Amino acid sequence: MDNDLTPKILQRAYEIWESEGRPHGRDQAHWLLAEAEIANGDRQPAAEPSKPKRKPRSGNPRSR
Prior knowledge:
Layout: H1 6-19, H2 27-39
Helix pairs in contact: 1-2
């Protein structure tokens, strides 16, 4: 990757890190993802893993 893109990659990697809740130990994954996004010319996460959605709690039928 070209050195003049380093600040853009750094900023995008930071945004990805924050969006994932600032996890420890994922810096290389965030950097590579940011690098790929910028190389492809897009800012949308292409390969970022999606978080599983929680099912809404249903009311307890016995509490009526």
